Amino acid sequence: MADIVIDAWVWQLETQHDEVLKLGHWLSRDERDRALRFLSAAHGVSYIAGRGALRETLALHMGLPPDMLQFVYGAAGKPALLGTDAPQFNLSHSNGWAALAITSRYPVGIDIEAVRPIRENLAERFFSPAETEAIAALDASEQLAAFYRCWTRKEAFLKAAGDGLNTPLSSFQVSVASNMPPEVLHIDGATMDDIKRWRLFNLDVGPGIAGAVALKTDDAADNVSLRYCV
């Protein structure tokens, strides 16, 4: 059994001009080129703020200058740090907020989403029948929050798994009710031992933002905790 800590960082992407210039200094040439390709200047600035802060935070963990970090990308486009001893991380952003999860041992997934009204029957299109029924059974005033709890937990799961679009959202089930702990309840084709190796956490970002963090360990007995960093 091991003790595993997930460090969670949350920040706003709106920054002052001088701060954007500083963060932009850490970016690679490819990252600067990407920032310039955004059709909206505001989106380009948000990308610089998010990517620059990502580099600064990861650099603290690695003891390197932010501009020395090198990223590689998996088949599904998930970024990782180059190096056998590099920490695992995942970044998400929504509605002017960014959230980062870092851990030393296992791939981690994080997702945040701004809570907005949704189209009718959207849960039925993407979620498992059990999740859809669980949301429908709640009071109408609780269903929107439950939808986003479900959505962010499932997205964090997919990002931790690294499968991305290859895994249908309906092929696994997570808890959705506010009085239930966040957990993976079912995965098509998986054993109960495999399911118990998954950990889910709610992520507290701020009003109007739902968030979740996911990680899969090698041992169901591992003690995993989420630590907020500033």
Provide the descriptors you would attach to this structure in a database record.
230 residues; alpha+beta; Ribosomal Protein L22, Chain A; four-stranded mixed beta sheet; three-stranded antiparallel beta sheet
Write the layout of secondary structure elements.
Blueprint: E1 3-12, H1 17-25, H2 29-37, H3 41-62, E2 71-73, E3 79-81, E4 88-94, E5 97-103, E6 108-114, H4 122-126, H5 129-136, H6 140-161, E7 172-174, E8 184-187, H7 192-196, E9 198-202, E10 209-216, E11 223-229
Parallel strand pairs: 1-11
Antiparallel strand pairs: 1-5, 2-3, 4-5, 6-10, 7-8, 9-10
Helix pairs in contact: 1-3, 2-3
Structure description:
There is one protein chain. By secondary structure, the protein is of the alpha+beta class. The chain has a single domain, classed as 4'-phosphopantetheinyl transferase domain (Ribosomal Protein L22, Chain A, Alpha-Beta Complex), CATH 3.90.470. Helix content is 35%, strand content 28%. The protein has seven helices and eleven strands. A hairpin with a 2-residue loop joins strand 4 and strand 5. Helix 1 packs across helix 3 and helix 2 packs antiparallel against helix 3. The longest helix has 22 residues. The relative contact order is 0.18. The model has no long low-confidence stretch (mean pLDDT 91).
